[in-house]
Amino acid sequence: MTERHQDTPGGPERGRTPGEPAGPAEAGGSAEPDGRAGRDGSAAPDGRDGLRRAWDELVSTARRTVADGLVVGTSGNVSVRVGDTVLVTPTGVPYDRLTHDDITGVALDGRQVLGSLRPTSELPMHLAVYRATGARAVVHTHAPHATAVSLLVTELPLVHYMAAALGGPVRVAPYAAYGTPELAENTLRALAGRTACLLRNHGTIAHGASLDQAYDRTAQLEWMCRVWLLSASVPGLTPALLSPAQLEEAGERLRGYGQQP
Known about the structure:
Largest sheet: 8 strands, mixed
Radius of gyration: 19 Å
Shape: globular
Oligomer: single chain
Number of helices: 7
Number of strands: 8
Order of helices and strands: HHEEEEHEHEHEEHH
């Protein structure tokens, strides 16, 4: 979701009618308004319908993070990759106000190719994840329990085997100012071999093959952080933790979990 503090006092810039594509001089892109590939070839091959469906799912996911208490206001951000175009939540716009006309998209190099609203201030972090992984969706939140844990440890203690579903022990990326290349670099290091991590004094980020998967990983991470905080808060008792061997065994079992094709 979008970082409110990045906006100008007047709010998000709307120099054109919402939904009108940014011109090359303003956004560096040339995607056509119907989502077909422009001169730079950066728009998704799915065309207008595919982009609109992805945008609808992105907005739904962004609203879900608010409803589930993972963010407050316009904090956090969500993105989804469609072909070579990354659709992102715009900065400083409440999610219940987003419509089809507010579609916002960038190329993988950050050039805006769709829409008139400015993309999230955390765009460098999202794009770094897409360039370094096979992710198709990224969810960033300011989830309260996860953020609290990020202040206390460098790695979430192994309180539950679902850590294996995120690739292993969840690391905490060192603090860096929001929206900076340094934060993006710290995030990538913490995500090495993982699909989620904590951001110190900031929140969480998770990626996946779909928005549903990225969101589910975000929610699972927040739940594990809450479990650790609750268990660690009991006076005189120390939480029992899993061993690396136990986590590895759980990971093997999880690979066969659920309905198999």
